[in-house]
Write a structure and sequence with these properties.
The chain is an alpha+beta fold and 77 residues long. Helices cover 43% and strands 22% of the residues. The protein has one domain (7-75). It has helices at residues 22-37, 59-75, and strands at 7-10, 42-48, 51-56. A three-stranded antiparallel β-sheet has the order 1-3-2. A hairpin with a 2-residue loop joins strand 2 and strand 3. The chain starts with 6 loop residues before the first strand and ends with a helix.
């Protein structure tokens, strides 16, 4: 099942805008490894002012990531 949703995560300082930034490259590699585990593909990846935007072609993986992010947000409150 293909997902058209995007996930946005404020991950890095606002001045980070380059896909070649070492931390951005590392995060993309982590996401690509995760895609392999879920037998899917990373279909979109971008960075804008430190916010990483990405998507996978797996609704299951997208839902699992959203659950993790929601739980993390609740734990920080």
């Amino acid at each position: 099942m293909e997902s058209n949703s995007l996930i946005e995560v404020d991950l890095l300082p606002d001045e980070v805008n380059s896909l070649e930034h070492p931390e951005v490259v590392h995060f993309r590699n982590v996401l690509e490894e995760l895609a392999l585990e879920y037998h899917c593909r990373l279909t979109y990846f971008d960075i804008h002012n430190g916010t990483v935007i990405f998507s996978f072609d797996s609704d299951k993986l997208m839902a699992d990531i959203l659950k993790i992010l929601q739980n993390d947000g609740q734990n920080q409150s």
